[in-house]
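So, can you check?
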Amino acid sequence: MERDTRLDQNDIAGIRDMLTGSGYAEEAIQYFLTKPNLGPLRGADHVTELTGPCGDTMKCFIKVDKGRIADAKYQVLGCPGALSAAMALADLVRGKTLSEALEVKDRDVFRRLVQIPDGSPSSAASISWRCIPTG
C-alpha cells in the first residue's frame, strides 16, 4: 500500500509554527515552503556541487542567455536556512551578468530572508553564491 506523502494544511501550519519558533522570518519560511527554485535545470550551462563545513550540500544549475543569468535552480540537502538561502539567491541573480551576480553577497541574501536563526546562515549563503561561475 502506497502512502500519500503530500502535505495538508495542518502539516504546513505545523511546519510554519516550528520555523517561526526557531527564529525564521516569514520571508524565509515562504521560500522554504514553496521552494520556487528547487530542482535540476535542463540545459544548464553551468553545474556546480559544493558541501559546506556543516554538511549542507548544494548543487547549482545556471542557464546563461546573451550574457545574463536566464535561470538558476538548486538541489539542496540541508537545513531550512540553507534551502531558503539558495532559493533567495536564485531570485537575486536571475537577470544579472555573471560579474553582477558575483557581487551579490551573504548580506544581500540575509536581507532578502529578513531573519534566520543564528548559526543557520553560516554556510548557507556562502555555499550558494560560490556556485556562480567566475567567468
